[in-house]
Fold this protein.
Amino acid sequence: MTVAIHIENLTRRFNDLVAVDNISFDIKNGEIFGLLGPNGAGKTTTLSMLSTMLKPTSGKAMVNGVDVERDEDGVRKSIGIVFQDQSLDEELTAWENMDFHGRLYRIPTDTRNQRITELLRLVELEDRKDDIVKTFSGGMRRRLEIARGLLHHPSVLFLDEPTLGLDPQTRNHLWQYIATLAREKGITIILTTHYMEEADRLCNRIAIIDHGKIIALDTPKNLKDRIGGDVVTIKSSNPEAIIAALNEPWISRMEKHNNEVIISLQNADQHVSTMVTLLNSKQVMIESIAIHKPTLEDVFLSFTGKTIREEEADHKTNMRMYQRMARH
Amino acid sequence: MDIIYTIWLRNMKRFSRSKSRIIGSISMPIFFLLFLGFGLNSVVQLPQGSGNYIEFLIPGMVAMSVLFTSVFSGIQVIWDKQFGFLKETLVAPVSRLEIMLGQTFGGATTAVIQGFLIMVFSLFIGLHILGFTGFLTALVFMVLIGISFTAFGIAIASRMEDMTGFQLIMNFVVFPIFGLSGALFPISSLPAWAIPITLLDPLTYGVEGIRYGLTGVSQINPLVCLTVIGSFTVAMTVLGAYLFRKIKV
């Protein structure tokens, strides 16, 4: 198993904001690797450094054994990238966008035409190939961008929020494409997302990133197992009382979050009635109670003490502001 | 070369599809020609005594058309920046110089085509091409204006965040360059103090060069014109390439 990406103490600052803070990890060849975190956590900054669009402040990053700082073109040749924001020329047709890309990567005409046909078929845009991109829907544009990113046969494909702003149906569709791609073409895929479900469904391994730091890195299953069994969420006006009342050995963990208590335990379905009885006997009011299998959302909450949504509200504005300032 | 051609090709495709833009940008010089030309033709006395005002104005309007189109084409890099397409080119394994040159030649080509359209229109209102050499001379100057001012536009675009400053640039940089260039009036008719300002304007030499090609007379020696506008083209291309190299997306 060879290493596709090697990151060592990678750091990037924008003025006094540390966007990426001393991260280190390896990504194996053929892996679908997810960077999961709220907006402004440092995912895009990491991707920008790996794709040579941004210089690291310190640390080292290698893509296919090539140093991103020493040999930019060497890295660029072996990667494909689908940016978070659209990067198609809307005035050109789907075919022309592909053709432009193929020429930029100096793919000979015959090979180029053959691959464009093949890829447009793969993303089911064959019959729209001569239509101006302006007339395309969000999902079609995304698919076209993914096809374009694959045109020069990269060994590593970066997908920055590939399904951002798409409707659930299109999102599902795209997930299937991405999974098929990784399987059939054997390319390494690194995707950033703040959709838990996306990371869970697609990725072999996930790095949870927050405030520029990697706070957990494992397979989705292992991450969820760390929660310990099932999750019971009890909503109440007095969450402290719940924690006090449920001090039982079969509960592995309890955390208060706003007016909810999140309880981790094994075999929740068997214990839930005991819990209700216990709370009733101590006269703690229960507004609602829910049992579910742990999701990455619970994992994120247990590592950061906040839901991903709350983190975003905190950091989105900050980060955007800093990035704007850094440009000047 | 193949990369420069690729970028140029994209510009041509976009240009050929933007019919409304083509019509929009040739209509202004045409209106100028019609209103100023016919309106002032009988009033204005040219110092040389040769030819009428319309004939004098035509080269100026050709230059105007090339100037505005090329600056606009250069500044369009901001659109590419805003709509994300620039990233796609910047992340490819190609040099920024190639991208910049492709943009420059693309912009210059569209500008020269626009100027050429004005020239064709002018044939109906009094332009007599003096022969192939004259036409070719005018074309050379149009190409130089096109390249230098597209590069100038790219240089500006490389430093601008978004299109908000565009109007400001047009009003305070491009329009004065046009107004001072002697496109509308003969340099010698200006008050003595204004002549040096006119001579500092690089477009003056472009306009005079085109005028020499189209009418056979110019107030500045065509070789001087060629040297000045040629040097200006080189300088702008270097400046544009330098600033574009540092562009951030």
User: Anything to note?
Assistant: The mean pLDDT of chain B is 91. Chain B has eleven helices and no strands. Residues 132-159 of chain B form the longest helix (28 residues).
